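F.,

This is the one I mentioned.
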């Protein structure tokens, strides 16, 4: 079972958007926690998501901040372009590159209780940083 890290939603960061802070022992843990937090905004009970469709996501970037930003952006893009809600099944982060195996299902309001539509990741108060306990990210999603 992969470690999914931890996330919490923040009420005092962005008024009209959704903000969260994620932590994890490794970059993979914190990136997966960020993906989970993003999914939960769109699907309040992510455990109901069926693994009917699989997608491999590969992203490269010059640093950890842009790597996470681009990864979350790709998850949102796949939601918009292919109507897919995806959950990370496994992930490897190394050398400025993410390789993630994701699974999920098409958006279906008759099958799932849907939350809010996420439009984009913003740079507002955004960060990814190393901490004494591992890694932390703060993300504000435009809804």
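My design for it:
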């Amino acid at each position: 079972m992969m470690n999914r890290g931890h996330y919490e939603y923040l009420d005092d960061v962005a008024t009209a958007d959704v903000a969260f802070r994620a932590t994890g022992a490794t970059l993979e843990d914190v990136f997966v926690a960020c993906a989970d937090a993003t999914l939960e905004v769109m699907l309040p009970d992510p455990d109901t998501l069926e693994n009917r469709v699989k997608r491999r996501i590969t992203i490269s970037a010059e640093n950890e901040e842009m790597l996470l930003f681009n990864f979350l952006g790709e998850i949102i893009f796949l939601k918009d372009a292919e109507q897919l809600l995806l959950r990370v099944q496994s992930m490897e982060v190394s050398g400025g590159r993410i390789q993630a195996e994701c699974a999920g299902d098409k958006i279906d309001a008759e099958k799932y209780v849907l939350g809010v539509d996420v439009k984009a990741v913003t740079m507002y108060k955004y960060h990814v940083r190393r901490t004494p306990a591992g890694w932390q990210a703060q993300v504000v999603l435009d809804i």
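The chain has one domain: 6-142.

Talk soon.
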